[in-house]
Design brief:
Length: about 220
């Protein structure tokens, strides 16, 4: 599971950020390896206690016309927690916080970016609104099941055929990302485990609906 999570993290924080950088677009703040001009950071709201404070800070900067930029030459490494409780608290904080920002701020920021003609804010908001990879996989699988159900009920295979486009695109994108960035992280056999990994996270998303985490909790890491 940790290897799959590490690959998903690499896709989010390197592959997507590198693609945005090559397209001349900004990137999200990633919680570490960040550098700020002092006149900018001294005006920032740092003591917000926000559950995903780095994501919020990057969006705040984009709103102010100072969107973050990705520097691929900079390298910062960190250790994923391996102790079960540390893994649980970290993933819950990341994913509950991300989903909360999507639902609460996504539509508002999209409208603001269009109203103020702010392409950097628009790009970061669109990027933010992409759900975590595991949830995206579950949503794609749910779309396929819905298409199959409609086929069974109506006898029309078109919904099922159309629904197959989503997993084909997602699968191709994941394979391309793995070939370019993931070979040193996990084997293809471990990559094939990803759908099962996504299913194992259903309780986390159910908990978001019934009792989401709203406070920042530090994850325990077992350092050597």
């Amino acid at each position: 599971k940790t290897k799959v999570a590490e690959f998903a993290w690499t896709v989010k924080n390197r592959a997507r950020a590198l693609g945005f950088q090559r397209a001349g677009l900004p990137c999200q703040l990633m919680g570490t390896g960040m550098a700020f001009p002092w006149p900018l950071i001294e005006r920032a709201e740092l003591a917000s206690g926000h559950i995903v404070e780095d994501l919020k800070l990057g969006l705040d900067f984009a709103r102010a016309g100072q969107a973050p930029l990705f520097c691929p030459e900079a390298l910062v490494t960190s250790v994923f927690p391996t102790e079960a409780e540390g893994v649980r608290t970290q993933r819950m904080r990341w994913e509950h916080g991300h989903l909360g920002v999507i639902l609460r701020d996504g539509p508002r920021l999209l409208l603001e970016s269009l109203r103020t003609a702010n392409p950097d804010l628009f790009a970061l908001t669109i990027d933010m609104c992409v759900p975590p990879l595991a949830l995206l996989t579950l949503l794609v699988l749910a779309t396929c099941l819905l298409g199959m159900l409609l086929w069974a009920v109506t006898g029309n295979p078109l919904p099922w055929s159309a629904a197959l486009i989503d997993p084909a695109i997602l699968g191709l994108a994941v394979l391309m990302a793995w070939a370019r960035f993931g070979r040193g992280i996990l084997t293809f056999r471990h990559l094939a485990y990803a759908p099962i990994y996504a299913l194992s996270k259903i309780p986390l998303y159910v908990k978001f609906l019934v009792r989401r985490q709203v406070e920042w909790v530090r994850s325990h890491r077992d350092l050597p």
